[in-house]
Amino acid sequence: MSFSNQIPPAPVTMVMPPIYGTMVLATFVVLAVVLVWIAAESRRLKSFLPLFILIGGAAACVTECLWDVLDCNWYPQIGPEPLYRMFNISVPLWILPGYALYIGAQGYWVYNQIASGRLTVRKFWLFYLFAWVSDVILEMPNIQLSVYAYYGPQPFDFFGFPLWQAMGNAMAPVFIGAIVYYWRDVFTRFGGLPSVIVPAVAMVAALSAIGWPIWLGLHAGLGYAATYPAGVFSFLLSLGIGYLISQKICVAPEIGIRRSSLAGKAIGSVS
């Protein structure tokens, strides 16, 4: 018995464009600006927790090769030396500051909002929308410049960017903020250091919880007949999981006012 290939063919002839060097520099410049804010937060709270979360976000980039295989995402293998190479995927350098910014910095912001009692349901969904839209805005230019590409029968393709991709990415910072907040008593005993592993764990959890239908659809060999229903299912999963989390981490405005009076203690308790 013979079986047809269910793995979509990758665009292996892609070459990294010259704009890559400028993009790497620009991403590190933005990271330097955000690092000033994180350092100020650490000083204000007398805690290394904000810095640990940012570092953990950067370290989470080691998972990128997993998503590239499952999401059918391809970085040009011809070009500058990669940050690392696994699963036959050369992951570029700019992924490191990119993860620190999108996963680490946003994850700390969510934690800060929860701990200070300022995360209402309305703000939660506004953040979800912001994270979703910002992911589209960040990825679209890179795709158009051929810094990387999505391939295969991607559902809801918008000028090369599959819109479903933003659903899991938008939830990753939420998972980080929630995990750090609800296990903050454990972190207190270790100076906040264990929070370094939270971004990678949270990202694997968020992307797996929401992305698995798409992954199955992309590698089923059935084309759009499988990926579009899977995309709808993933979208519903993202909204459903977001709703469940919001019911746990968000507060009513009047409760938030009371909790905000304890914000310094709540956030700074991990030191």
Explain the overall architecture.
The protein has 271 residues and is mainly alpha-helical. The protein is built from eleven helices and six strands. The chain has one domain. Helix content is 65%, strand content 5%. A two-stranded antiparallel ribbon has the order 1-4. Strands 2-3 form a two-stranded antiparallel sheet. Strands 5-6 form a two-stranded antiparallel ribbon. Strand 2 (84-86) and strand 3 form a beta hairpin.
- Strand order in the largest sheet: 1-4
How large is the share of residues in beta strands? 5-15%
Instruction: Give the CA-CA distance, first to last residue.
Output: 61 Å
Runs in which pLDDT lies below 50 for 5 or more consecutive residues are 254-271
Determine the structural class based on helices, strands and strand pairing.
Answer: mainly alpha
In a few lines, what is going on in this structure?
The protein is 65% helix and 5% strand. With 271 residues, the chain is mainly alpha-helical. Strands 1-4 form a two-stranded antiparallel ribbon.
Key words describing this protein structure:
globular; mainly alpha; two-stranded antiparallel sheet; two-stranded antiparallel ribbon; 271 residues; disordered C terminus
